[in-house]
Amino acid sequence: MQRLVFSLLTLYAFAVPWQYALNLGEPYGNVARIAGILLLTAAIPALLAHRFWRAPGAMQVLVLVLFLYLAVTYFWSIDPLTTLNKIRAYFQVMMIVWIAWEFVETPAQFRLLLHSLVLGAVVLSVLTLSGFLSASAAAAAEQARFAATGQDPNDVARFLDLVFPLAALLFAQTTRLWLRLAVLGYIPLGTLAVLLTASRGGFLGILVALGFAVIVLLLWRPQSAIPTIILAAFSGTVAWVVVPAETFARLATIPSEFSSLDFNDRFTIWTEGFRAFAHAPWFGYGAGNYALASGLAGEDTAHNTLMALLVMGGLVAASLLIAILLAALRSILFTSGLTRIAFLGVFLVWCVTASVGSVEENRMTWLIFACFPLAGRFFVQPQLQNVSLVTVLSSPPSPESA
């Protein structure tokens, strides 16, 4: 039973990046939802069969508390039906934090889980490029944004950004040739796919992601500097030739968005959200009610994860999110070497992309947050528990981390 659950867990990780590209409609939903239901169906009897459950860490406890709190907001929600639907959605995406903690038992299994995630991102990259190539020449000449069928360009960019540091880490740790080629090939492939989305938040995220990916490769083998430069030059050349001029033109508006403080109307959305928060600062308006509480159109989102929780669940929910982030950072700082650098990169990429997107109801978010404590569990360095942040970041990578 344990092996079945772990197999379904890797299938779930593989499906999450490209989940919206394969949707079977009601009542089944997208491929990741189906994989999640199968995973939960197998995990519950397997957990009940356990004589001893693994002691939860800070991440698991905090995520459970956040879920329960968001569920309790039903009792003061300004739209209880919407909140009820959100509670079901939150359960589907947050459960992975507990399941992964229980059923990933070895470092080898953890790496296999990460490989599944990276291979899923490769699929998403291919689907995005396929969407671009399938567009007619006339349409491609006028279109600035491309994404896999069924996927939002901002989600595509966000999902792909999170995987770059992990791809570099796995390249350094993997011995199988085909896996090494797959994870290394993801870097130029994913870069091109992110650029094609023309997501400005995604572009900022990829700058951080690729920066940490390069650091991982250079720390792994300093002599890889020349191949890394060649790979970067090749990726840049391909992007310059393939990506439409309209896409680069949209990305070029990033400085003006910062100078005008507009952020594609996000500043207005955040302003209305803050006004709503000021009238219910402690407990909010109920899960899923950001747009209604802020007086926005029903399809609008907060475009900022912290702001979304401030309005929906007040300072209580926002404080729990901050505590979850601190727990994730604590797990990362307990690791060493390349693992620490890669996961610190993933953490910072999440923070960047979550600042311009509402990702609290996102499977990718909670899958990533499920990985942080696993990294801390398998690569923990006891001597790091009482050292400063500066010492942790400046210490050299350990040989076994590569």
Question: What distinguishing features does this structure have?
Answer:
402 residues, mainly alpha, 72% helix, globular
Describe this structure as you would to a colleague:
The chain is mainly alpha-helical and 402 residues long. It folds into two domains: 1-53, no CATH class; 59-401, no CATH class. The chain has 18 helices and no strands. The protein has helices spanning 2-15, 31-49, 58-72, 80-103, 107-134, 137-142, 153-173, 177-197, 200-220, 225-242, 245-251, 254-260, 266-279, 290-294, 305-333, 337-354, 363-378, 389-394. It starts with a helix and ends in an 8-residue tail after the last helix. 47% of the residues are buried.
What is the strand and helix layout of this fold?
Blueprint: H1 2-15, H2 31-49, H3 58-72, H4 80-103, H5 107-134, H6 137-142, H7 153-173, H8 177-197, H9 200-220, H10 225-242, H11 245-251, H12 254-260, H13 266-279, H14 290-294, H15 305-333, H16 337-354, H17 363-378, H18 389-394
Helix pairs in contact: 1-2, 1-4, 1-5, 2-4, 3-4, 3-15, 4-17, 5-7, 5-8, 7-8, 7-9, 7-16, 8-9, 8-10, 9-16, 13-15, 15-16, 15-17, 16-17
